Amino acid sequence: MAEARTVYDVVGGMAFFEALVDRFYEGVASDPPLLALYPTPEDLTDARRRLTLFLAQYWGGPTRYEQERGHPRLRLRHAPFPIDADARDRWLRHMRDALDALDPPADVRRAFDAYFAQAAEAMRNREDRPGLAAG
Ligand code: HEM
Question: How far is 41 from 31, CA to CA, in rounded Å?
């Protein structure tokens, strides 16, 4: 009986997510206003590992993220970082650049683009104009 192939399988497994996140963090490291949000900007090794394992798990791979970190609760985990529309857009631009470099199949790319756009907006926790923030 054929089993449904996950996105994780289609893109080639963990190596794809490692390469994607490596590219992504090269972009983050070259973007001072974005890098400033990271708790340890001088060493992104652990951040890299967490994002790699999370994405691999989300797209159907092994559940190592959950084993190491527990339930994702991503919005809560991002609460300490002031993420406004500018930070969201910087984050997304580096992720899209990394996806351009790896060039996954078109249907997978569409799924990634849709997911990252909505997830990055969900992580936004600041209004653009501080004076008008809801609180
Ligand atoms: C598509 C949306 C996003 C996803 C899927 C995502 C995913 C993650 C994951 C899995 C972690 C590690 C959580 C943990 O286990 O502690 C993390 C950490 C972090 N994220 Fe995001 N994130 C997203 C958007 C953003 C955005 C828009 C920003 C800022 C502009 C951001 C900034 C950070 C920072 C500063 C950390 C802490 C780094 C660290 O793990 O040491 N994230 N993110």
Answer: 11
Ligand 1 atom having least distance to the Cα of 124:
27
Can you tell me the distance from the alpha carbon of 1 to that of 60, in angstroms, rounded to the nearest whole number?
19
- In sequence order, the 6+-apart residues with CB closer than 8 A to the CB of 84 are 124, 126, 127, 128
State the average pLDDT over residues 78-89: 97
**Sorting pLDDT into bands at 50, 70 and 90, what band is 128?**
confident
Atom of ligand 1 nearest to the CA of 118: 1
Residue 3 has pLDDT above 80, yes or no: no
> In angstroms, how far is CA 97 from the centroid of its own chain?
12
| Ligand 1, CB cutoff 6 Å, lining residues | 34, 37-39, 46-47, 50-51, 54, 69, 74, 77-78, 81, 83, 87-88, 91, 116, 119-120, 123
Domains of the chain: 11-37+44-127 (1.10.490.10)
How large is the average pLDDT for residues 107-121?
98
